[in-house]
Amino acid sequence: METDQIRNGVSFLRRSHSEFQEKTTEWTCRMKSREIPTAALVLGVNVTDHDLTFKSLSEVLQNNITPYVALLQAKDCPGIKNLMQKLMGQLMNCYIDVDSSDEEDCVQVSQNRIRCSMASLISWYENITKKTDSETPSKKRTSSRHLQSPPVVVIFKDMESFTTKVLQDFLVISSQHIRELPLILIFGIATSPMIIHSLLPHSVSSLLCIELFQSLSCKEHLSTIIDKLLLTTQFAFKLSEKVLQVLINIFLYHDFSVQNFIKGFQLCIVEHFCSQPLSVLCCRLVEAKKRVNSLSHSQCENVRRLPSFRRYVESQVSEKQIALLTADNFLKEVIQKLLEDLHVYHENYVPVLRCLHVFTSSLPKYPLGKQIRELHCACLENRVWETEEYESSLQLARMLNKSDLVTMLQKCVEIFASSSGKEFDKVVEKLKEFLTQFQKLEVAGACQERGESVSSQKELQKKTDLYHLQKTLLELKESRRSKKLTKFEMLRFEVVDFIDNLVRNYLVPADHKTLHEIMYFNTASALREHLNAAPRIALHTALNNPYCYLKNRALKSDGGTISNKAPDICIVYKLHLECGRLINLVDWLEAFSTVVMAVEGPNAAASDQVDDIIHARFIRAVSELELLGFIKPSKQKTDHVARLTWGGC
Amino acid sequence: MPNLEHPAYPAATLLRLESLVPCRESQVSMLLSIFGERQQFTFPSIFIYGHTSSGKTYVMQTLLNTLQLPHVFVNCVEYFTSRLLLEEILIQLQNCSSETKHASHVLCDTFNDFVRMFKQAVTSQDLQDQTLYIVLDRAEQLREMEANILPAFLRLQELTDRNVTVVLLSEIVWELFRPSTGCFEPFTLYFPDYSIGHLQKILSHNHPPEYSADFYAAYINILLGVFYMVCRDLKELQHLAALNFSKYCEPVVRGEANERDTRKLWKNIEPHLKKAMQTVYLREISSSQWERLQRDDGEPGQLKGLSAHAHVELPYYSKFLLIAAYLASYNPVRTDKRFFLKHHGKIKKTNFMKKHEKTSNHLLGPKPFPLDRLLAILYSIVDNRVAPTANIFSQITSLVTLQLLSLVGHNDQLDGPRYKCTVSLDFIRAIARPQQGSIDTF
């Protein structure tokens, strides 16, 4: 299943980049020009995703256009020399990858005395193209995929991080040899294409023939992935509202990285299957039914312990309750039935959710969110029809105009028709009926309304004195309030009520369903701990409250006091929290020794001299704190240290 | 017009040479007189400088090729280390006279080796009786190689005791080359910029064969009228001329105007060229896109240039981090308390504003700030509580890699890293717009 997700991600990325490839192919034809053809690929700030993108991009390039693709990264190329080395290494190796049978001597030459200059690259290229020209027919087939003289594609993965000088030199050199070595550059840009101008002076950028390609925004990538992974019945595994919220928050607030989202999702899968013993049943329905039959007694007990199952039991009549709690076989039958229910629920949930999204996504101000993922979260959280937002969106939906309503209904019909749920035949019929009624209205309604308004206008013109005018106006208002329910409006209400009904029937939150624990992963706190780690807070708790990690009974009694049983570093840490910016070491030592000696009675405390051992312990603890970055020696006063942290955590 | 005259070379060759180097006759004749006859020794080193595309490389190349003088031509940018450079010279030397290319590998690590092997090569190639020219293009790169390279090249004649002349081509003046230890002074020669008349002459020199020279010259005249103000780079102008010529010819091809109808043609091309100046010349759109546009006769409005995509999408906290960094960079530390604390004296604020001139901060450029201050400002500008998670810290680093922030000082300084914000006010405004906080108030 996990590989499934990765494949989904890759295939998606590839799809989004297919347009680039098309353009690249057509534009390899214009290599004859003096300028170096360059593609500026704006990929967005989610740098972690770029690797995957570039990988698939270079794969596609290698399959379709040219075997010579080199990927360069800024951190490998601090100087032009390293860049050339890297470039030549990659190109020559990739050539060997293509046909590794007969070209071993070439490797040796390149490995031993590689002269990292353009000249040797050119001679290499000439050799290769000559060879491919005089190839055996069997190889002709493979090279026919590529162009006659395949261009050399150099991909700069992270344009921003390259130093100006390296890029300039490389561009100047390669532009001088563009005729001998057909080069195509691809700049991976994370921020904005302006960076090209800020990195390269005009004299260099005039050597390039830059075309801009904008990739889809990462938010769109995310919605596609959510669409494919979560809003489908294909996978039994689901995320609960809180977990999904955590993942989405990390995505939106922190990194915009689709890859991290997928990794988080994978982590959820692992956690779920590790921590939930009943996750054996989290698979396709047919298989799950089989597995139910082979459940052991203890597993049945596990099922009985599930809170949702208990709720279910409580709602049953008493004899059935007893049977459920005692007879394993009966229980298994019920489980099968319940699993089937759950499956049907999922099947119905998705189309109805999409249908509701069609409505809510076009309302002004988006009370239920613009994206389907927000709606999904809202539906999972609690009964969506009880929320205020839902109420207001229904209100707004009652004010939609006809053309919008008709297009929405058409969309809904499409959604339901394509869904696999069995119960939607009637729904589709009903929706179609609505549509035909709307069409009828179009003819009849138009003339009728006009007639009405004209007559009332006439009435208005007749009455001229003030009193009558007021009266008629009031009447008009009232009549408008009551009578304005034209056929169209009636129909509109009907439609909205119908949708409302659907929502109430099918969009029940998942945790109201029995046995939802099997499918849904909902320990959001674990996920948050893993994915959104807070090192400073962890360090603070470790030092402030050592019991939290050490689990030693003696440490537990901590209130606000400093226990002398805690590790030295904890004592020192706590003492330093009480100090200002500069800490006097002597005072600190004294405080430390009082705390440590507290237990040993008055005779020890009486001795004025601080014990050597305690002194040593203190020095060690302080240097540990320094290592952890809490304090540093200060130059202002020699016997003081400076604090580096403040109560931010 | 000074005709090239030199006793050593046949008049026909000189005439051909003259036709090839328009507007550079005086320099060429100067060079010729310096070079003297084939076997004569000349200056050990010659330094030629002039602005970009003032024909230095071209003149040297045509001169040496037309007169068939033995020479080696090396671009110092391309051979970026001294070893590569020296080896390349030796390789070219080997292939200089003998036509057959034998790709023997030369290993040459030091200049001493170079001198030795150079002597051998000259003897074996039978070049003793004529001057050998070593042309080093983009010679300013030599300064970045080992300290001995440049002085040694300057007195190569003396070191090798052979008839050799080193010609250095550069865009900067000799004064910037002179090493502190002193060296042999080369003969310097300046190539002045082409004047507008020169440009006109050179550009009209190679007109397309389908059209008459006058027609093309008129076109060049218009082109220069538009572009001369912003661009005097011959190469760039040539490129632009080639790009836009088809558009100029359009009325003639359609038969709406004949070749003499300059005014009509001017009206047709002028707005087009102006558009080109704003787009192609600045590389906002590429020349191939421009050509496509010309063919389809579309509006350039549909094609957005590079700067049109200036907006950058950032994660929520990254936006705030960047805003905080900007504030930290452009506000003095002492105002932090006033801006970011809830309780501050209102009266003080007005007094302060009068004294303080706001614009000056932006003129001074960003100042470095410590990490703590950045985080403190971040906590105060974000409405809800922010936990200092690992993600926040990694976001700071990723902003640095995106070059939106820059790290001041060394990379390995772990305690108290200092940053600078490198983005402009407009950028920050664009980012802050969706957020409620307006930057102007800070």
TrEMBL record, chain A:
Pfam families per record: ORC3_ins, ORC3_N, WHD_ORC
Q: Which GO terms describe its molecular function?
A: DNA replication origin binding
| Cell location | Nucleus
The terms describing its cellular component in GO are:
DNA replication preinitiation complex; nuclear origin of replication recognition complex; nuclear pre-replicative complex
Domain spans labelled Origin recognition complex subunit 3 N-terminal = 10-281
Q: Which UniProt keywords apply?
A: DNA replication, DNA-binding, Nucleus, Phosphoprotein
Domain Origin recognition complex subunit 3 insertion: start-end pairs: 292-524
Question: Nucleus: present as a keyword of the record?
Answer: yes
Chief subcellular location equals nucleus
Per UniProt, residues of the Origin recognition complex subunit 3 winged helix C-terminal domain are: 536-646
Give the superkingdom in one word: Eukaryota
A Gene Ontology biological process term: DNA replication initiation
**Coiled-coil region list:** none
Q: How does it assemble?
A: Component of ORC, a complex composed of at least 6 subunits: ORC1, ORC2, ORC3, ORC4, ORC5 and ORC6. ORC is regulated in a cell-cycle dependent manner. It is sequentially assembled at the exit from anaphase of mitosis and disassembled as cells enter S phase.
Q: What is the name of this protein?
A: Origin recognition complex subunit 3
Source organism (scientific name): Apteryx mantelli
TrEMBL record, chain B:
Respond yes or no to whether keyword Cytoplasm is given for this record: no
ORC5 lid domain: which residues?
Answer: 216-283
Tell where it localizes: Nucleus
Q: Which domain of life is it from?
A: Eukaryota
Q: Which InterPro entries match?
A: AAA_16, ORC5, ORC5_C, ORC5_lid, P-loop_NTPase
Q: Which residues form the Orc1-like AAA ATPase domain?
A: 21-167
Keywords of this entry: ATP-binding, DNA replication, Nucleotide-binding, Nucleus
In this protein, which residues make up the domain named Origin recognition complex subunit 5 C-terminal? Answer: 314-434
Q: Which Pfam families match?
A: AAA_16, ORC5_C, ORC5_lid
Report the sequence similarity comment from the record.
Answer: Belongs to the ORC5 family.
The name on file for this protein is: Origin recognition complex subunit 5 isoform X2
From what organism does this protein derive?
A: Apteryx mantelli (North Island brown kiwi)
The gene from which this protein is expressed is ORC5
